[in-house]
Amino acid sequence: MKLSTKILMGGMALLMASTMFIGCPEVAGETGSIGEDLELTNDSTTGYKRGYKSLKTKHTSASALITLGAMNGKNDNGDGIIGFIYHIQDVSDSKGTPTGAKNFGLVGLGRNKEGQLMAYSSFFKKVAVDDTNINKKKNFTDLKGVMIGEDGCEATEYKGTLKTYTNYTSDITKPVTYRVDVVAGGEDTDKDGKVEDGEGDGSYIITVSTVKDDNSADKKIVGYTIPAKETGDTKATQYDLGIYTNAYKGQTLTGRLELVDIVNETEVAE
Ligand SMILES: [Ca+2]
Ligand SMILES: [Ca+2]
Prior knowledge:
Elements: E1 26-28, E2 33-41, E3 49-59, E4 61-68, E5 80-92, E6 98-111, E7 116-127, E8 156-159, E9 163-169, E10 176-184, E11 204-211, E12 217-226, H1 228-231, E13 239-247, E14 252-263
The structure holds calcium ion (CA) (2 copies).
One calcium ion is lined by residues 190, 192, 196.
Keywords: Signal
Protein name: Lipoprotein
Organism: Treponema peruense
């Protein structure tokens, strides 16, 4: 496997898009950090174009650096959203058979044409997604294709309101990087400073921060809590992580997501 794999998703026609994330994750360094360059073009004049990818690497807690690429400033709300996905869980029916739907958390970042940071945190349940479902009908809907919030939809979204942080403004002609920490909540039973697999209470504490030169968190911008009753867990558990992209109409979204500081790392799947 190559040490560096660029994931390019741009320039493909709207209806032809099928495999937008290509190749294996980049693996480098002793901690096995994983990162991908992202590019997604939405040629449509309406709606969103969404990409979802599982990184197939399991962790109880993980942090990601999200780099929002340079923008042309032609759209008020910017080019779109890059999101860090965690707790990817297959949903099973009462007989234990996977239904195809998934539960997962998502922390999304973007910036408007003034360069102001926009952020939100969601927890989705029973959502239809797969690694190649950009532009498919069943994308961030329930398994029947019913949109979240519409009558009869079996999928749900916890919170997820996009807010603008006017104190955090960057030059849109240049990339900017923020850090997202997704940390298992509850008691660190063995007091080693980390809530590991089997410790904790099943909740998550999430922080979005500015970043220092060494990639550690600098200033906290916003925090979120996902309660255990929303995740359905009673203790910290390893789940796959992933990447979300959402290009707004007529826009090309570029950027990068890189994992750092991961807890209970297992083998990196290729
Ligand atoms: Ca320990
Ligand atoms: Ca511990």
